[in-house]
Amino acid sequence: MEAKHPSESRTVLTDLVLPGETNQLNKLFGGELLARMDRAAGIAARRHSRKISVTASVNHVAFNEAIPLGSVVTVEAMVSRAFNTSMEVVIDVWTEDQENGQKTRVNEAIYTFVAVDEQGKPTAIPQIQPETKLEQQRYDGALRRKQLSLVLAGKMKPHDATELKALFL
Ligand SMILES: CC(C)(COP(=O)(O)OP(=O)(O)OC[C@H]1O[C@@H](n2cnc3c(N)ncnc32)[C@H](O)[C@@H]1OP(=O)(O)O)[C@@H](O)C(=O)NCCC(=O)NCCS
């Protein structure tokens, strides 16, 4: 299978924050943002793998800034690294000043997707070939994050997490 570039999976969703999607402070409800990020990441994973792709894990979410009612929100997702059947998808969230168009990065997240066949069995996917410096940085950190996620999920023994051990030893 030929390797693909992160940009080939790039997925951008732009939408408004409406009244039914906010909390008591009139800011975007966290669960709504998680759903938007999951949707964008799922499309990115499918674009990379061209297979059915399911969310296996939400590895990291940072709600750095609250997003007010009426905001224009852009969610951008890209596959940062592919393993055998799983992919790390990095998601950046931007708001846009509606007067001058200036964009501010307000949130970020990292999800893991797994490509599966019609029976839900994990199936092999193409590798990733980073092109930019940022893509290379994200690629380099992805194995460490995968091992951390597997250790937290009880699917890998800490002793076997070589990338994590390398941070401390
Ligand atoms: C995701 C799913 C297919 C994984 O199945 P599984 O039997 O654990 O499969 P495996 O153990 O072979 O793991 C498959 C891959 O996922 C990775 N993986 C599994 N759990 C992971 C986790 N918590 N974090 C990171 N990677 C994980 C494995 O490392 C493996 O990666 P690799 O093949 O690239 O090395 C299965 O758990 C599933 O179908 N879950 C439900 C998904 C779903 O419905 N999501 C929607 C949200 S409700």
Automatic annotation (TrEMBL):
Q: What Pfam families does its record include?
A: 4HBT
InterPro entries given in the database record: Cytosol_ACT, HOTDOG_ACOT, HotDog_dom_sf, Thioestr_dom
Q: Where are the transmembrane segments?
A: none
Stretches assigned to the HotDog ACOT-type domain? 7-119
Q: Does the keyword Hydrolase apply?
A: yes
> Does the UniProt entry include the keyword Protease?
no
Q: Which UniProt keywords apply?
A: Hydrolase
Q: Which family does it belong to?
A: Belongs to the acyl coenzyme A hydrolase family.
Q: What is this protein called?
A: Acyl-CoA thioesterase
Q: Organism source for this protein?
A: Aquimarina addita
